[in-house]
Amino acid sequence: MISGNTCKKCGRNLPTNYKYKKCESCRNKRIETAKKVVFGTITVLGTVGSIAVTIFSGGKNKK
Ligand SMILES: [Zn+2]
Questions:
Q1: 2 alpha carbon – ligand 1 mean position (Å)
Q2: Mind telling me which residue stretches traverse the membrane in this protein (predicted)?
Q3: Each residue's pLDDT tens digit, 7-61
Q4: DSSP class of residue 17?
Q5: 63 vs 58: CA distance, rounded Å
Q6: What CA dihedral angle connects 27, 30, 36 and 38, to 10 degrees?
Q7: What is the CA(56)–ligand 1 centre distance, in A?
């Protein structure tokens, strides 16, 4: 029986009723990458934000 479902990324055979076009391992990699991007963005924004707050409050407290 040919399911016709293969991972779009690595070509691995997928279960017949699999609802994704990529296998679990490729999807996990994608999720990991997305997580890293999101986490990196948050880290950068947080760093920039805290620096901005430090500068801002420092300037405010300056006499
Ligand atoms: Zn795959």
A1: 18
A2: 37-57
A3: 999 999 999 889 999 999 999 999 999 999 999 999 999 999 999 999 999 876 6
A4: T
A5: 10
A6: -100
A7: 48
